[in-house]
Amino acid sequence: MKHSNHCRRTVNFNRNWKFIREDISGAEQKRFSDEGWETVCLPHTPRIESLHVDMHFQGICWYRKHFALDEADKGKKIFVEFEAAMHEASVWVNGKLKLNHKGGYLPFTIDITDDVDFGADHVIAVRLDNRNNGSIPPGKPLESLDFSYFGGLYRNVHFHVTEKLHVTDAIYAGEPAGGGIFVKYADVSQSSATVEVQTHVLNEHETAKKAKIVTTLLDKQGRQVETAESSVEAVSAGGAHTFVQTLTITKPQLWHPDTPYLYTLQTKIVEDGHTADEIRTRIGIRTISFSKEGGFVINGDSLVIRGTNRHQQFPYIGNAASDNAHYRDAKKLKEAGFNFVRLGHYPQAPAFLDACDELGLMAVEPVPGWQYCEEGEFQNIVRQNIRDMIRRDRNRPCVIMWEVSLNETYPGRKGATDEFFHECHLIAHEEYPGDQIFTSGDTMGRNKPAYVGYDVPYTLWNDETLSRPLEEVLPDKGGFDREYGDYEFGGHESTSRVPRDAGEQKLLLQAWNYQWSLNRNRGNKWSLGDASWVGIDHNRGCYPRLAECGVLDTFRLPKFVYYFYQSQRRAEIVHEHAESGPMVYIANYWMERTTPTKVVVFSNCDEVELFVNGKSVGARKPDQGPDTEYGERVTGYEVDYWLTDEEQHKWKDACVQGKTDAGDMKVFLHDGGNCRNLAQAPFTFTGVAYAPGELKVIGRIGGKEAAEHVVRTPLEPDTLSLRIDMSGKELSADGADFVFVYAEIKDANGTVVPSACDEVLFDIDGPAVIVGENPVRAEAGIATVLLQARETPGNITLIALTKGVRPTAIKLASVGCGAKF
């Protein structure tokens, strides 16, 4: 590939990989013939999986890439960086073994400078093994794991060319609290902030070099805000030097979830008057703290953390998502009203965290793990994972906590000692010195929680009194509810696990569970915040059905509970790149019923008025009823992990039906209470007489209309319409990007028919393919396909057909995405 002679160049290395899903002897050799292998683009999954897969592909697969270098790169350093590979990777260059990497969630880099010749053909070969391996986090076998890790080269690969005098990569350098560029802040206020920058420079010339660092802070428009120039230092041959600089910023734009302002830090190595290296780092200036008395504070202001959890997977393709797809997920979670996301239970794609930085989603980044802590190699990899995830993401403003406890790995698990987790806490603080590093983790059952030392100890969702942190041993620390709203309502048969086509009553019950739990959480004065389980429905190895407790289903379509959370956002806050401001939503299909009904409205307005066929039912202020018990159990057993399958089914059915017979549970569903601790209570209308037609609600703020929502009684299916979910990013013609296309079965009034479940057949014309099922059965009136772009940009036409209604078509275009290897 021809290029201009810049001092540093990074090229996307995702195209034209050869792939085979079997173990092949000799495939690492340069002259091995891969002519019959499939040609794929990264990110890539080893096998397209079914929608409800539990045991996804496990085994050996190979990737090979042929490439040549340009003469202009002679004398430079050449690296290949893998963002991740699942989960044991062996990498060869021209038949030479370069690395064996264990762990599927963090990056690794190989230096191929001495392995290549110019003008010749070269081959990188990667052998991946994602079979169960107790030495590699998460450790537990797939069949007992409550999520799925899939496989493949499922993230990006990058090709880097630098001068021999260059800024290092923090993970590759392997320096505690060092390597690369490390940015910290001091004395942050609205009037000024001190930006401390440390830059690690490596000299791989055969002679010493004299160099200085010029660091410039650029604003959002690329204008210079401040600059600093170091003294000239001699960097010995083969040696390294860390330059430390300080910039003082007057009236800085501070990063906050409501105003996520990002600066760019431009770093130049200047040697003998010319630029030897240049790198840009996106940063957000902010300061944070956690305390029992003050809660969570950012830039001097208290803020309640209102979050959710997210697994990184998508239907059919597993974890092999494009950068744009990760952004679209982050945007949907932001628009749902969340200001925080827990990356359950592992570091996720850089692209997702890029989106969190841009959109104002705070995050906790967990070390990979789940109910497992074997001594030996496993724990050694955990230690290194903590270092690597901090080195990768320490400059991100969105990351406010580092979870170092291995999810749900309580005492009783082999190796899960206080000593080990205390060491994990200390490793994190060694990697990020100062007062802006906050470790978090489970304290349940720890013999010496104060000794373990987590800065932000977790509460636990099935701890009825929510007494964590333990008052007698952690009296000065607030707690964080890392998961709530799902398992405590019935285990694997939780009434929070509701598909979108479950019907109005079950969707309302799901919303009630999360409302009831959130209100309980917010009533604990020492609570720093919480994260619902979960943001998006996901697969899991331990169960053949999706975990359907998400506010969004696996196709990223919202359930009623999505709008409950949306109502918790502040109406006066308007975000630049996410839907925001006032909202109102009727959680009702307004279908035929024989008795007066309860109508639940979610809104962040201060008053709503409800209309049936144009006639006002009345205006209401937010609910203000008392807190109540969730329900009355008369069976004598608790709702927890240890319910039998029969008991779980019984519990779920009883909750939905509101039974009071012996052995059943009565749930006081949307009783007008359990809301006083919420940012915004729902509006519950009772005794509304049903009349087919239109149900409308108007939301008002200060007496002025601010939002409106209309629901119409669905009639028979009449039309089919197509809708594309772009969520702020065009479809990129890179061979990996994809969008969801929704075929909505509507009546003559344009209302989606929630009872429609017909199959929809899709046909496509243009540079794109449909991945996964086709035809697709509609769920609650909507059939969804995953449409993936080819590598050539162009116009795409998608046609949808189903019985009884007219076919329809929609057009879109995929766009070019820049140079790729």
From TrEMBL:
Residues 596-625 form the DUF4982 domain. Keywords: Glycosidase, Hydrolase. It holds the Pfam family Glyco_hydro2_C5. It comes from the Bacteria. The keyword Hydrolase applies. Residues 58-159 form the Glycosyl hydrolases family 2 sugar binding domain. Residues 186-286 form the Glycoside hydrolase family 2 immunoglobulin-like beta-sandwich domain. Residues 722-810 form the Glycoside hydrolase family domain. Residues 292-413 form the Glycoside hydrolase family 2 catalytic domain. Belongs to the glycosyl hydrolase 2 family. This is DUF4982 domain-containing protein. It comes from Paenibacillus germinis.
